[in-house]
Amino acid sequence: xxxxxxxxxxxxxxxxxxARLGAVMQRDPHARPDGTYDIHSVYLDTPSRxxxxxxxxxxxxxxxYRIRYYNDNxxxxxxxxxxxxxxxxxxxxxxxxxxxxxxxMRGDLLWMCRDERPLVRALYLKMRTELMQPSVQVHxxxxxxxxxxxxxxxxxxxxLRTGLFNADFLxxxxxxxxxxxxxxxxxxxxxxxxxxxxIRDITACHCRPMSFxxxxxxxxxD
Length: 222
Known about the structure:
This protein has 222 residues and is of the alpha+beta class. It is built from seven helices and nine strands. The chain has one domain: mRNA Triphosphatase Cet1, Chain A, CATH 3.20.100.30. Strands 1-6-5-4-3-7-8-9 form an eight-stranded antiparallel beta barrel, surrounded by four helices. The longest helix has 14 residues, at 11-24. The radius of gyration is 18 Å and the shape is globular. The two termini are 30 Å apart.
């Protein structure tokens, strides 16, 4: 389980923080030369929007399933379950093939019940018993910084977008409207048992802890 602190920054605040982070933290090695990468996710939910409701009422224990890919790479996918237990977060995941994602998106689930991956079987049970299905799309651009002590990961997320009228999640040509009118940047600080003092000092003047869910924000345009 990991700690997670979120804060909403202006573009100017993000620029100032970016310079300080770059001086002491490593860039994510999987990023593009400019230090960013795009994340494309589709979250699964029940017809009654149970996951959304649990987030809105602040249930102390909740889980969300999502499928995601990075940049425009449609050959590498991740199935993830993100869990929230009080103030702590956890995430488990496994890779999926393009054929498996295609099958899941069109409702072909038989292959899942025979799969050896526990997460795939857990999702299959949810889709069969709770009618969970692909729901809302979440797209954004991320900058990530890493610091080994404390297993710290600091991210700056911007350009939050969603799918238009449940358009094909895998069609990179589909328009994806912005969910916010201002150019805010979402700061997320994630760490295991402690946050090193140097990272705390760098982020302290910019970090005004708040609750913000990209998943919830994108439902406004679903």
